[in-house]
Write a structure and sequence with these properties.
alpha+beta, Alpha-Beta Plaits, 2 helices, 4 strands, binds iron/sulfur cluster
């Protein structure tokens, strides 16, 4: 389970976040490209925009469910 105490600093404010367990598999950037992207140095994925509609929320939930190391959290 993701831990909000270990959010990566790049995440924007809001309910969804990536924590420091990310293994850079990129699945979330495919599942929810409107909300997740890779850091410029590829060291981690992060949430660059919180979901703004139902489709984006659904995509973020899918990313949360499919992340292989449970590095995505929703504390909303
Ligand atoms: S799905 Fe999880 S492990 Fe893969 S890039 Fe996204 S946060 Fe990182």
């Amino acid at each position: 389970m993701a831990d909000k105490a270990n959010k990566v600093p790049l995440n924007v404010e809001g309910p969804y976040y990536v924590d420091d367990q990310c293994i850079t598999c990129r699945l979330c950037t495919t599942d929810a490209p409107a909300n997740f992207k890779m850091a410029d140095d590829e060291s981690t994925a992060y949430v660059y925009k919180q979901p703004e509609n139902d489709a984006e929320k659904e995509a973020c939930e899918e990313a949360l469910d499919t992340c292989p190391v449970d590095a995505i959290g929703n504390d909303g």
